[in-house]
Design brief:
globular; 2 strands; mainly alpha; 94 residues
Length: 94
């Protein structure tokens, strides 16, 4: 599972730099979305942190997905290869 420490590190080191670059390159007319994916899920502390950030951040959007949501995104995309890989390697019979 992804810990709060890992999620906080991504925010402090990656998200701010990417958003700053996005802003500096005049992409202001496009909404920036940061997605955190983990087939192993997130700890409760990490989920709380992500939910808090998502609720308090107005400059960009934050989404986070665990195994079931990732599997659903794969199915929704109709990308059979990705869906099969997810089912074969990361899923408990989904």
């Amino acid at each position: 599972m992804v810990s709060k420490d890992i999620v906080e590190e991504r925010f402090s080191k990656k998200v701010s730099k990417i958003f700053k670059n996005h802003h500096q390159n005049n992409y202001d007319n496009k909404r920036c979305v940061f997605e955190f994916w983990s087939v192993s899920g997130f700890t409760e502390q990490a989920l709380s942190f992500l939910k808090e950030k998502k609720g308090n951040t107005k400059k960009y959007d934050i989404e986070f997905y665990s195994e079931k949501e990732i599997m659903q995104k794969a199915k929704d995309s109709r990308a059979k290869k990705i869906t099969n890989i997810m089912r074969d390697y990361f899923s408990d019979g989904v």
